[in-house]
Write a structure and sequence with these properties.
By secondary structure, the protein is α+β, with helices and mostly antiparallel strands. A hairpin with a 4-residue loop joins β4 and β5. The chain has a 9-stranded antiparallel sheet. The chain has a two-stranded antiparallel sheet with strand order 7-8. The chain is built from 13 helices and 11 strands. The chain is globular, with a radius of gyration of 21 Å. InterPro entries: Arg_Kinase, ATP-guanido_PTrfase, ATP-guanido_PTrfase_AS, ATP-guanido_PTrfase_cat, Gln_synth/guanido_kin_cat_dom. This is Protein-arginine kinase. It catalyses: L-arginyl-[protein] + ATP = N(omega)-phospho-L-arginyl-[protein] + ADP + H(+). Belongs to the ATP:guanido phosphotransferase family.
Amino acid sequence: MSLQHFINNAMSAWMNQDGPDSDIVLSSRIRLARNIEKFEFPTIATNEEAQEVVKIFEDAFADKVCEPVGKLELLKINDLQSIQKRVLVEKHLISHHLAENSAFGGCLLSENEEVSIMVNEEDHIRIQCLLPGFQLKKTLDIAGKLDDWIEKEIDYAFDEHRGYLTSCPTNVGTGLRASVMMHLPALVLTQKITRIIPAINQLGLVARGIYGEGSEALGNIFQISNQITLGKSEEDIVDDLISVVQQLISQERSAREALYNTSQIQLEDRVYRSFGTLVYSRVIESKETARCLSDVRLGIDLGIIKDISKTILNELMILTQPGFLQQYFGGPLRPDERDVRRALLIRERLELEMESNKRMEDDGI
């Protein structure tokens, strides 16, 4: 399989699109937690009950069309190989919990992979919508339409005073988790992030790593999301997050400008060293890859590097993860083998980009 063919067939469509404020906000996500009335929650359900829930979704929603997103295909977790499950986690389409703990779970996916509805995760239903850039309102609107579509066929577990009932008390109420994935290298380099994160926490929000709770902020990428789901409407939760994200965008842009104005040579040196590492390395670990990609992305956003597309970096952030590497190279790899193959894949991808740019230049485009 050629690298270009693999990329074309491996990447979610939304990953190669720019959205509003996409120099800083990589993606917007809305997740709604729901459970089915009169069914035990997945955390205590028997295998038979879990299978019954999957059967409900298979009969009612698989291969059916929901107007905002098109047809949804059901993937059953126990039909997937371990590498396939890992790839879905790396693309943020399913959670680690669903991949590792739910033999009788599933996932309804839209063709463009902007919508993923997890079945028998921590709750019976986890509706997730992902869009590029800063588009929380639009993402909430799509999630709401999916929620209404499902509720036409299923009675939700709901309490008049508490709202939607969920396995974890922190999700009771709206069941809403709104989040944005943000690239904040300048706030990290200027160490302002160390005072910003505690301030975010005091506002009822939380900053986590790229894969959510318990994960590390690799490549200066932070997931900012709400913690409170009870006592506020969905619209108020999203409005509060939007307000904080707008401030973070402003502070990150100011920090970038200050860095460039006061330390231009040092910043350019950092960017080009990282670019050279990506272009020439024969062995590279995932943490170093994330750091170098962050530096190069910052260089592109500031106009230091002009002939590499930001979408290449979006691709490489995903393609260099362990699951994708093993899928591309055809089977399980030891960690040291992954480091060699990761460097090879990065070199091949950047060579493809440079060859494409040269052809365009020769053609006068």
